[in-house]
Amino acid sequence: MSTRRHVRPVVKVGAHVRFRGVKWQVVALSGQVIHLLGPGGGGEAVLAGYLFADPSFSVIGAEVPQAAPQWGLFETAPAAAREKALAWQRHVREVECGLADGPGSGGVVRPQYDPARHTLAEREQAKAEELTALGFGRVSRTTVQRMRLAYRKQGLWGLLDHRTTRTSSPTGRADERVVAAVREALRRRRGRSTGTINGLFPLINQILKDRHGPGTVPVPSQATLYRLVTSLARPGELPSGPVRQMPASFEGRAFTPATALRPGEQVQIDTTRLDALALFDDGRLARPELTIAVDVATRAILAAVLCPSTTKAVDAALLLAEMAVPHPARPTWPDILRMDHAHALPHKRLATLDERLAGAAARPVVLPETIVVDRGKVFVSRAFTAACETLGISVQPAPPHAPTAKGIVERAFGTINALFCQHLPGYTGSDVTRRGPDTEKDACYSVPQLQDLLDEWLVHYHYRPHEGLRHPMMPKKALTPNQMWAALVAVAGYVPVPLTGHDYLELLPVRRQAITAAGIRIHHRTYDADLLAPYRGQPSPTAGRDGKWEIHYNPHDVRQVWVRMPDDELTEIPWIHRDHVHRPFDERTWQHIRTLALQGNHGDTQQYEADLADALDQLMRRVHSGHATRTEQALLARTAHVPLPTARNGDHDTEAPADSPSQQDEDDSIDDLDDLPDDNFSAAPAAGFGLYDAYEEADKW
Length: 701
Prior knowledge:
With 701 residues, the chain is an alpha+beta fold. It has five domains: 50 residues, Roll (SH3 type barrels), CATH 2.30.30; 83 residues, no CATH class; 57 residues; 202 residues, Nucleotidyltransferase, domain 5 (2-Layer Sandwich), CATH 3.30.420; 163 residues, no CATH class. Helices cover 31% and strands 15% of the residues. The strands form seven sheets. It has a five-stranded antiparallel beta sheet with strand order 5-4-3-2-6. A five-stranded mixed beta sheet has the order 11-10-7-12-13. Strands 17-20-21-22 form a four-stranded antiparallel beta sheet. β12, α11 and β13 form a beta-alpha-beta unit. α7 crosses α8 and α10 runs parallel beside α11.
């Protein structure tokens, strides 16, 4: 049986890599330090993160891994085309490995597709005959081969019938010379009073005559000219267009065994309700949903996400990215929680090679090989399984009614409840018989605040010795997850190459927006760049979704968004006031500023947005200088990059009256972020978690 495809490249002893434009050989691995031997006999010891971050780095001879799945793009295809692509996926898998669900899945290999008995060409021919009999049309072996290669290269996107995703040009089959003349006529009339469409026809004819000579270019019919002018004109250039005028600067602006021998060999994921009440955005008290990923080999909790409502497929997909990228340390955290202060990890002595590691949290970073999940619809969704397949991750559903199949992650939930939740106000206990009478009165944290506390506690957890972790040379000593990770990385003999920035962008949440004359408007923020000039007022070239463009955004830093351009690349588009607000902020911070905005004339949207940006900058300055209230400090502590001083004793936890109206954006209808209530944040500790001291707790453990 063939091996699992689309695995990520690995760096192991004996492998050749390209680094700084030179070919090196890996001669040793020690923790996260990779020892390289150069062509001249010289050697270097390089930190793995520094090596992978080099733009010229590559594993010589390794197959280029498939990029993150463009699931948002796949969903734009018609339902029939998507179903046919998914059917082709099962047939292609059966041709390659003999099993329709891929290598490692259950089932019996049919004789005609047994790789041990038939060659690949024979299996392709058998599949062609089978598909023809099933009604797929006249399918040849060449067609099966072409689909198999397309799937290997592009995943599900390569199996689509791209005739269904191809959109017609706005100009159709019109002569390009006529199209150029229409564009020129529109340009010449720009800035003048708006006339009728008929008034452009003589100008178009004159331009064609001057450029190509009389009678050289046949003039299309009046209906064709109407269609061309309507499709090529910008907002405000047609009599039937919007009444508002374009701004002056518009032009060009901008389960399975219970043991594992290496990190990531098996990761268990599950979801449960947290045993603590939280204040939701709608004002009600409820238990948020907690989703965690636990590495079996190291018992490290690789990712933990709290969701106010039911976990969605996009949250599960983002969980993959959370496991494979470093976690930044908060500025208010003690130094013991940072990577460069972690004695159990080998980063400290080489932290000077890459200053970015100094800001990372002391938590393992692992790219899973196998993920064990229950049969919840989130984890068996197409979006989650497609992302796992493309990243080389095998998804193994646990047997039904067998909770012991995921015993590690279930025990981790008990650890979180015992060591974390019971110290929280609003702790509910494990069942109603253990619930206090005033639990609802004690609850005071919001879901984002609980997420911040959980993120910090998880770093403490990785310093706690675990009785299930034993070193082969020291079986009587319990190791911490960090120590086990550092030991097993060297034993495994390779370091998986982490996700690229492009893969992370593909896993970010997606929304649909129009590109207007002013740019992309989201909750009174305008995102714009010069490269958007040709696409203002134009529909997205991607079929479906009412012509709106695919926008990816980071909910924790809304200073920029990423737009999928016609070349299928995600391009960053900044907020027009990003240079004025240098530190990241999230949607809640922006909503807080809008709630406290003074009464005034909001008709001038540009001035209103500038005033909001200035108010946000002033808030950040107050927090940085120590003049902010504790509420304002708690608001920004989640996203600040520099240490935040505590509020002065004279400050009061009060806010300005929140009675100003908030203007509803015309593009906010696809998102409910504007429906957030007025923020009434509880005072959160600004100088760290405050529940545990790392050294004192280590003595108790």
